[in-house]
Design brief:
10 helices, Arc Repressor Mutant, subunit A, elongated, 2 domains, mainly alpha
């Protein structure tokens, strides 16, 4: 929202200006305002009726779980400082950014296990774990059962 306020203030100031190049500047400011508005609107979750500022970030991470996500990378993608990202993540999702990345990776791993066809090492590689062993440990902590057992358990019984 701060971006919108800045763009609006500039647009209003230039609308009152009599500078000969004012029209070009007003057009550029209007374009900036449109981009800022589209960006802010993209962060509104209509189902919740409120803004979830990090929704776009987590959608991106969920679509790219195999990437190495550092706090600096996440903050850059979210257009926030590392401190603000951590604060917002705690506020909106009640976890750290690293915990959210792990949660998204494990969700993807769960889906890949259900689909079958991939080994645990292949799944680990796709979702950002260094090995099948590392994935297995994290998966077991999160789900309370091993990946193999999860894969072989009927869907109704495996859903927490």
């Amino acid at each position: 929202m701060a971006d919108l306020r800045v763009a609006m203030a500039g647009l209003v100031r230039e609308a009152a200006s009599e500078w000969p190049q004012g029209q070009r500047l007003r057009s550029a400011l209007a374009e900036c305002l449109l981009v800022a508005l589209e960006r802010d609107l993209a962060e509104i979750d209509p189902a919740q009726g409120d803004a979830t500022p990090l929704r776009g970030l987590w959608r991106w991470v969920g679509d790219h779980p195999g990437e190495r996500w550092s706090l600096a990378d996440l903050a850059w993608r979210a257009r926030r400082s590392r401190t603000q990202l951590h604060r917002d993540c705690r506020r909106w999702y009640d976890c750290s950014p690293a915990a959210m990345v792990a949660r998204l990776r494990l969700e993807r791993a769960s889906a890949l296990l259900r689909d079958g066809g991939l080994t645990l090492d292949e799944i680990a590689d796709r979702v950002g774990y260094g090995s099948g062993f590392a994935l297995s440990r994290a998966f077991s902590r999160h789900h309370g059962l091993s990946p193999q057992r999860y894969r072989n358990t009927p869907l109704r019984a495996a859903t927490p």
